[in-house]
Amino acid sequence: MTSPLTTSVSGGRWTPRLWGTLLVLCAAMFLDALDVSMVGVALPSIGSELDLSTSTLQWIVSGYILGYGGLLLLGGRTADLLGRRQVFLVALGVFALASLLGGLVDSGPLLIASRFIKGLSAAFTAPAGLSIITTTFAEGPLRNRALSIYTTCAATGFSMGLVLSGLLTEASWRLTMLLPAPIAVIALLAGLKLLPRSEREKDHNGYDIPGAILGTASMLLLVFTVVEAPEAGWASARTLLSFLAVAALLTVFVRVERRSPGPLIRLGVLRSGSQIRAQLGAMAFFGSYVGFQFLVTLYMQSLLGWSALHTALAFLPAGALVALSSTKVGAVVDRFGTPRLIAAGFALMVVGYALFLRISLDPSYAAVILPTMLLIGAACALVFPSLNIQATNGVDDHEQGMVSGLLNTSVQVGGAIFLAVVTAVVTANAPEGSSPQAVLDSYRPGLIVVTGIALAGLLITLTGLRTRRTQASVVVAESPQKAPEAERVAVHD
Which positions fall inside the Major facilitator superfamily (MFS) profile domain (predicted)? Predict the structure, then answer.
């Protein structure tokens, strides 16, 4: 069912309430990205005040990733079944409380617990928010514009988080934990008034409890295994057994989903080539960027001696470019289609990452670093909105939460996996001595891997361009409930 708010749009102009709805959803996405980027800079101060070891500090970051990446599939389907508005608002309230808890605790384990709860709540707000957009804004130019603004808020939040963390940590790391709380409360109060009421799915065939348990367990174990692999060893018995357990859980999960009358994930959706390319593209896009940011942060702070704020400002041109292009990308998508924009964006990322290989111990920011940041900013502006549009186009309203959860899972799992791979490559090439040049040389293989990940994303996207030459549109695999209507749905990618 499409929201009644959609009918209030005439002549392509949005009503104030429609803008308000979008701003509430953008605020939640902004907070998710802000929270991820802010905590990294604050880690040294947290460790010093709470007397935490390096391994414990890692879990302040990993705890969030574990809750977020592990529960996204469940969060997306829950939004479909229990109502998107209800799930979004409850999860946003939990996010605010966890933020408050994180800023007040004096214990490492409690801080990690608050981070896990925040990740868990984000696993419900992210797919619920995205599915509210896709069911409120009609497919086509209106939705494309809304999604371009929505995804831009994520990039803006990430960039602002880096800058704000550098400023706030100077006063107290607790401010970085507390800042999201009032923003979340304001968004919650506005959401109570502005968000469209959504009905629960009436025709579902019960709750897929076995699928929910298996899907959540497999994602939690996968993210946990990848996060711990660099420390435990990729070839260690613990890591290998964990991966085998993940494979076993996923195998059973697929069998359960095939037989379930109301599956957590309808596997027929993945018969669409454009859907598969969107999911794989999301993994390559976010995985390459997270790996790149990790290496660049080490390079700037550890080797060049830049402050946290100086480092954050170095990344700012990329975020500023994304923010400035937010209202324009939707129109560009309408004209050129998502595959072309995704391919162009990945090509810019590959060039940007490759150019960064020129770094030295005394680089010129304008000549060496700035071109990469601008290319990555342009790539993010093209790729991220286009991936969201491609993944959600042609999908029935009652499955938008499911697809949104699947896309966000691909983003988080891709980030966790490829960051672990990049970290392992850099660690394997770490020099025995402490020569700055030797340390810099150990970063280059990691940058090459990052470039290779982006190149893989480009190649995957190019297969869609080749397919499009022979088939103008791709029909999404029909839902069992709406099989006769599937023929009318064409994915505009």
Answer: 21-469
Q: Residue 189 is which amino acid?
A: L
86 in a domain, yes or no?
yes
**Residues 157, 151 contacting (CB under 8 angstroms):** no
Give CA separation, 34 vs 9, 96, 106, 274, 472, in Å. 31, 13, 22, 30, 39
- Indicate whether 397 belongs to any domain: yes
CATH number at residue 460: 1.20.1250.20
Report the half-sphere exposure of 468 (CA within 13 A, side-chain side): 16
The structure tokens listed for 173 are: 């790391």
**Domain range enclosing 218:** 209-259
Q: Hey, what are 55's tokens?
A: 């391994």
Rounded to the nearest angstrom, the gap between the alpha carbon of residue 98 and the centroid of all alpha carbons in its chain is 20
Q: What is the pTM of this model?
A: 0.78
Pair (74, 51) in one structural domain: yes
Domain end, chosen from 259, 282, 299, is at: 259
